[in-house]
Amino acid sequence: MASVLNVSAYLFTHIADPADLRITLRGRAEAAALRGTILLAPEGINLFLAGRADAVRGFVDDLRSDERFAALTTKESWSDDQPFGRMLVKVKREIIRMDRPAIRPEAERAPAVAPAQLRRWLDQGHDDAGREVVLLDTRNAFEVDYGTFEGAVDWRIERFTQFPGAAAEHREQLAGKTVVSFCTGGIRCEKAAIVLRDEGVDAYQLEGGILGYFEHEGGAHWNGECFVFDEREALTPDLAARG
Questions:
Q1: Active-site residue among 5, 63, 179, 183?
Q2: Angle at Cα 47 formed by Cα 196 and Cα 22, nearest 5°?
Q3: Is 56 exposed, middle or buried (0-12, 13-18, 19+ CB in 10 A)?
Q4: CA distance to 21, 121, 180, 214, per residue, from 114 (Å)
Q5: Which residue numbers delimit the Rhodanese domain (predicted)?
């Protein structure tokens, strides 16, 4: 039975002291023998951790005791081996780089669609108002090549900073449709959905991203695997590492 718990989580929330917080979290993570990466920025936190289940969950519980991170939710998966080589805690300008300072999910989120709601829309072929649903993959092209939703739109971007330009270029193709942006864990589609709505597109984000969808709906309407940024490389819809 797989014994290493892997968690991913992010939260857009104002952090006034990311450099000081980095020292605190690094000490806690090392004391718990965790490995992975934690990114901190004034706009929030993004983390990928692996270790003993009690240690990982204890670290997350301690983090949630800080009111800034009380709303943090995690996505869990398991592996036989530790997928990270070391523990890194970094301070960045953004927890997911877009180079658009005006896009601030910590101030106001775009509306979200739960996995069950999205599956219902895909099963019936339209949203609850009868409109066409467009699934928009906001990930980089090489990630999309591992797998994506059936019929998803893929703009073949090479890095996320290209997304705003692509959204402006393609907005007319999305007019009058219900657009659901998605990404691995939800962090990119938080910003992507705001950009799309600023372009006049009726856009939503998939709550919890692809991994959240796998957790609740399995592989329905999905083809392939989901790339992840650790030594497992990709996960199947049952959240297992590729064979």
A1: 183
A2: 115
A3: buried
A4: 32, 11, 11, 12
A5: 129-222
Give mean pLDDT, residues 139-151.
Answer: 98
Q: How sure is the predictor about 1, in pLDDT bands with cuts at 50, 70 and 90? A: low
**Residue 183 designated active-site:** yes
Read off the tokens for 240: 């297992």
Q: Strands 153-154, 133-137: parallel, antiparallel or unpaired by DSSP? A: parallel
Count how many Cα atoms sit within 13 Å of the Cα of residue 84 in the half-sphere of its side chain. 23
Angle between helices 209-217 and 115-124 (to 10 degrees): 70
Q: How many residues are recorded in the chain?
A: 243
Nearby residues of 74 by Cβ (< 8 Å), 6 or more positions away: 7, 8, 9, 60
Match 């991994």 to its residue by tokens.
Answer: 211
The predicted model scores a pTM of 0.92
